[in-house]
Amino acid sequence: MIDSKIIKQLREKTGAGIVDCKKAIEQSHNNLEKAIEILRKNGVLKAKQKQNEAISNEGLIEAYIHNQGKIGALIQVNCQTDFVARTKEFKDLVHSLLIQIASMNPKYIKIEDIPDDEIEKEKEIYRKQLEDIGKPEEIIEKIILGKLNKYYEEVCLLEQFYVKDESGKKRIKDLINEAIAKLGEKIEVTRFVRYSL
Fold it and tell me: 24: domain CATH number?
C-alpha cells in the first residue's frame, strides 16, 4: 500500500508531479531514498533542473481550430534549440496543449500569473458562503485552501488535468515535465489565446 505521507515528502523534496511520485513510491516499496533515485533514473529530476536553467528562446507558435471553426487557440511554446522545436515529440506536446486550451478554456498559464486581487476576491466569496452556513473559523480556512486549489485547476493551464489522460491524474505540468525529461531541454508555455464564437 502506498504511504501518502511519503508521496508528500517526495513531492516536497523533488518538485516532481504526483503521478511520477506515486510510481516511484510503488516501485521503491515506500522507500523515500530509493524513490528519489528512481525519479533521477527516469529523468524526472533532470526535467525539474532544466526548468530552472538556461534561456528558452526557440520553439513554436501553433494554431488549432476546433468545432467546425467555432473555437480557435493559438500558443507559443519555447524550448532551448531549434533542433528540439522541430522534433515530433515537441510538436505533439504543442498540439496537446492546444487541444487542452480549446477544451478547458484556462485563463492563465500558472498560479503566479493570477492577480492577487482576483485571488482575494475568490477567498472573500468562499468565506461569505461558509459563514452563511455557519462553519467555524478554523475549518473555514482549510476549506478555503481546498476551494482555491480547485479554482487553480480550473483557471491555470499547468494545474489542469490533461483531457486526454485516461487515469484523470496527469496534470499539464506533468505532461510538460515528461517532454523535458525525454527531450533534455527547458520547455515553457510563453503565452496563449483562445477564441470562441
Answer: 1.10.8.10
Residue 99 phi, psi (nearest 5) = -65, -40
CATH number assigned to the domain comprising residue 127: 1.10.286
Residue 143 sits in the same domain as residue 160 = no
Burial class (CB in 10 A: 0-12, 13-18, 19+), 9: middle
Global pTM reads: 0.71
71 within a domain of the structure (yes/no): yes
DSSP per-residue codes, 64-124: EEETTTTEEEEEEEEES-HHHHTSHHHHHHHHHHHHHHHHH--SBSSGGGS-HHHHHHHHH
Q: pLDDT tens across 30-40, in order?
A: 888 888 888 77
